[in-house]
Amino acid sequence: MNSEDARQTHDILRALPLFRHLDDAALTELGNELQWFALPGGSSLFEEGDVSDALYVLKSGSVGAFRNDEHGNAQLIGLVAAGETVGEVGMMIDTPRNASIRALRDSELLRLSRQDFDKLVNHHPRAMLAMARLAVRRLSSRDGNASMNAPRTFGVLRHNAGVDVQGFAEELVRMLGAFGSCAKIDKNEGHGRLSSWFNEIESHTRFVIYVADADDDWQAMCVRQADCLLLLANADEAPGEWPSSACADASSALSRPRHLILLHPGHLVDGAARRWLDKTPGIRHHHVRDAHDVRRVARLLTGRSLSLVLSGGGARGFTQIGIVRALREAGLEIDCVGGTSIGAIIGAGVALEWSDQEMFDNYRHSFVTSRPLGDYTLPLVALTRGKRVSRQLREQFGARDITDLPLPYFCCSSNLSSGQLDTHRQGPLWLWLRASCAIPGVLPPVCHNGEVYVDGAVINNLPTDIMHAMQPGAMAAVDIGADDSLRTRIEEYATPPFWKLVFDFTRGVRPGIFDILIRSGMVNAELASAERRQLVSLLLEPPVRDIGLLDWKSYERAVESGYQYGMRVIGAQRDALHEQVPLRV
Predict the structure, then answer these.
(1) Using CA atoms, how far apart are residues 373 and 367, in angstroms rounded to an integer?
(2) Measuring CA to CA, how many Å separate 133 from each of 89, 126, 129, 386, 435?
């Protein structure tokens, strides 16, 4: 290793938290023991279950951590950028690799074998022991299914010459600048440069934007240098095939994160997302109308976003309208949202960017004025026909597709045909909201494409685990099921005479059939909610005991109660939240 390489290696090691406490002698010896090698994009460093025989320092490029899902398909669970370590914990505590590591792009690594590590321990026992303790502490504080680390380099690629790739890139640089140093490199500046020039810029800059403003070898260079690919298209143009060099398919992208950026002409173009996603399947998408949307994209890309998850709970869900208002007034911008049952319906209004007043008025009309559960019928399938609920959902949300919502959004339903929870990120919004709130026995199930769907709360009433896997960053969740219990002061095992039923209902001591069905549909999902609540940065559990599950007439009181509760709790934790997400100013 020549003197320049030795200096660079020393600087890399000194900047790593794992090695920062080592003295110069230990760092120098560590640097001498490290073995340099190159790993081409797509190549495997090691596989899950392999023996942990070395640790690695990523000098340049990026690698991804993969685990197989229940179907045996490799899923990207983490991203390691240049200047970070890989595999240190498994080697130090002698456990098999807990994930597969593959290069997302051409990368350079430094390898320290177990034998060389043991030699350093013998020479510098205190320093290396402290390093091992730090690694173990990092493991104990890290979620085994941690969300992805944020990419550091972005390739901005255009669908055709008519896309304003430079304008978007300049705005993105401005927004990313709030989170760290940022550089933009286009063809004029980067064409003909050696990879060492790019690596030097990446080593001293938090974010680098590579602007592919030409369909030639420069675009190929941008792709090679990018941890994450942003594909830009004009939403109002007819979708077409992407240039092959744009890595529009997952295989050519080598499993790197890919995002479709739809540039709108100031207003959302209805149906645009579905049309473009058909040309680029399996990719996340974002709607961009102005600088406000670019700021949201920057937060989502870098893990500085705030996600919101809303639970089910009947009329008690109206408290969530007040909590959304409290979040907004605290300066916290909601970047993506998901929910189940009534939470899915309230969340759809958030994803549509309804104002506080629009939220209040629209949901009051849908749930109070229109009496959606008033169409009782002979209970062969359910107690109500479900037509009123379907009509109200269609009136409120129209024929729009979930993919056309301004904010990223999902809702959940329980698939009785498969026995699993289904997460809906596309398709008719009103239809999947209807499925998500189909309380068994109260509303008829949704039958679609040969399968039967009911309320998502039956399986998962607080889908923070879905949001956690989908989007890194801070998460707020409203759990109105945790304070939900069904109590009675009567003792019986058979239905009493009619006159006694009326008397008990008058005194409020007997739960009704609606209450029993709603609560029984949620109780199984509550068993796992304690673990899901631990995934959030801000857990909101408004007091709802005095609001009945079907107490639609308490609408105003529920909204105000949620707002007052939210202002108290969010205000008390505002500074802590500010450390995780930027506040709106």
Answers:
(1) 9
(2) 10, 11, 6, 59, 50
pLDDT band of residue 515 (cuts 50, 70, 90) is: low
Length of the chain: 585
C-alpha 321, offset from chain centre:
21
Q: What is the largest CA-CA distance in the chain?
A: 95
Q: pLDDT per residue over 144-199, tens digit each?
A: 333 347 889 999 999 998 999 999 999 999 999 999 999 999 999 998 888 889 98
Is the model's pLDDT at 432 over the cut of 90?
Answer: yes
CB neighbours of residue 162 within 10 Å: 10
Give dist(CA 563, CA 324) in Å, integer: 8
Which pTM value belongs to this model?
Answer: 0.86
With 0-12 CB in 10 A as exposed, 13-18 as middle and 19+ as buried, what is 250?
middle
Integer angstrom CA distances of residue 549 from 246, 314, 553: 51, 5, 11
* Residue 302, token pair as written in the block: 């870098």
Checking DSSP bridges between strand 446-448 and strand 284-288, what pairing results, if any? unpaired
Catalytic residue among 60, 107, 307, 341: 341
C-alpha 108/C-alpha 110 separation (Å) is 7
| Per-residue pLDDT, 146 | 37
DSSP 287-325: EESSHHHHHHHHHHHHT--EEEEE---GGGGGHHHHHHH
pLDDT for 281 beyond 80:
yes
Which of 349, 504, 502 has the alpha carbon at shortest distance from 433? Answer: 349
| Res 1 pLDDT > 60 | no
Please state, in angstroms and rounded to a whole number, the distance separating the CA atoms of residues 484 and 488.
13
Alpha-carbon distance 208 to 7, whole Å? 23
Catalytic residue among 227, 335, 455, 479: 455
Is there a contact between 64 and 10 (Cβ–Cβ < 8 Å)?
A: no
Task: Please give the Cα distance from 228 to 224 (Å, whole number).
Answer: 10
Residue found under tokens 């933009």: 184
Structure tokens, 206: 């938090």
Lowest-confidence region among 118-127, 184-193, 311-320, 407-416: 118-127
The region of weakest confidence among 192-196, 321-325, 509-513 is: 509-513
pLDDT, residue 17, reads 73
CB atoms within 10 A of CB 498: 8
- Is 341 known to be catalytic? yes
* Position 260 pLDDT exceeds 70: yes
Residue 233 pairs with which residues in a beta bridge? 262
Is residue 26 within 8 A of residue 73, CB to CB? The reply is: no
455 catalytic residue (yes or no) = yes
